[in-house]
Design goal:
The protein contains five helices and no strands. The protein is mainly alpha-helical and 104 residues long.
């Protein structure tokens, strides 16, 4: 296993900045994640789904997405794909690709 060295501060940071100045700069950092409330809601729903279905939760969410796709229900499809993505991103990406090729 390779051990890598991570410096205490970025190399590009000028040395003349004090710790307090670096702290003020870091405090002004902006979180650019959009729609955090919706993301939190999806995570809560995914955790509830996981509590109900255990390790089979991502597979069940993918199955429900397939059913929604067959019905032509875009909102339900998006909902189950988001839950599947929260539980298993690779499975959700594969499901999205697969559903794009299937007729409704």
């Amino acid at each position: 296993m390779t051990v890598r060295f991570a410096t205490a501060r970025p190399i590009s940071t000028p040395v003349h900045l004090t710790r307090s100045a670096l702290g003020r700069i870091a405090a002004r950092a902006a979180n650019d994640n959009a729609d955090l409330a919706r993301q939190d809601q999806v995570v809560r729903e995914a955790l509830r789904h996981f509590a109900a279905y255990g390790l089979n939760a991502a597979e069940d969410a993918a199955k429900r997405a397939r059913i929604a796709h067959g019905r032509g229900d875009a909102a339900d499809l998006r909902h189950w794909l988001q839950i599947c993505a929260a539980l298993d991103p690779r499975r959700a990406a594969a499901m999205h690709r697969k559903l794009a090729t299937l007729p409704r």
